[in-house]
Amino acid sequence: MNRILALWAIPRSTSTAFEWMMRQRGDFICHHEPFGEAWYFGEDARTPRPNKVGVKPGLNYASVWAALRSDAENSQLFMKEFPHYILHMADDRFLDHFHHSFLIRDPARMLPSMYDKWPDFEVEETGYAEQHTLFDIITERSGIAPAVIDAGDLLNDPYGTVRAYCEAMHIPYKEDALSWGAGERSEVSWYDKGSWHDNLKSSTGLAPQKTNYVDITHNQHLMSAYDACRPHYEALYQHRLRAMQSV
Fold first, then answer.
1. Across the 247 residues of the chain, what is the mean pLDDT of every consecutive 10-residue run?
2. Structural domain boundaries in the chain
3. May I ask the CATH architecture of the domain 4-237?
4. Neighbour tally for 52: CB within 10 Å
């Protein structure tokens, strides 16, 4: 099977917009958080959040993994996923199936966005610690740090940052993929049909979005989460790719 190009991200990190850009390329089959659906709604769900939808019969980690490997037999796959969904299964045999990359975001920007959707979020649901752990596991295995892009760089210089990412991952840079039309995004909406991807629906490319989120100092819950998440973000930030100039 082909190695799966994996973007290990955290929630509210512009990761779905990045995935949407990958969908515009046309040379990858793209999977949107496939293990996440099992994490929330599978027969072996692991989420700390109460399941208000119900278990989906036949959906479990094994079925998701089998479907991914089947798709990768004859096609190039891109997968956007959160490490806290899969860390329990991240042994050598599993990790060898992927070409790894990471997307990080300053928790001062990410946490207010998450709070806007889930005021009762738990630190475990932010995924920072698990992202850091997975990064260290992969780096220790290969002796080389995997590619890391920062959401701030991605939004401030999308062309240069995506160019650097493509070079690091040894895939062609396709500038046309960085623009698209506004519209529905049903391909990335298995969790709910609500407001999680409103910004993506109205977007036409990778760019900063106007938001009205509370400040990180809004309450003790956000401040405590920030203190817990910040060291993990900083550890990966030092490895981030620098944007490349157009040629």
1. 94 93 95 93 92 91 97 95 97 97 97 93 95 98 96 95 97 94 61 56 73 91 97 98 77
2. 4-237
3. 3-Layer(aba) Sandwich (3.40)
4. 8
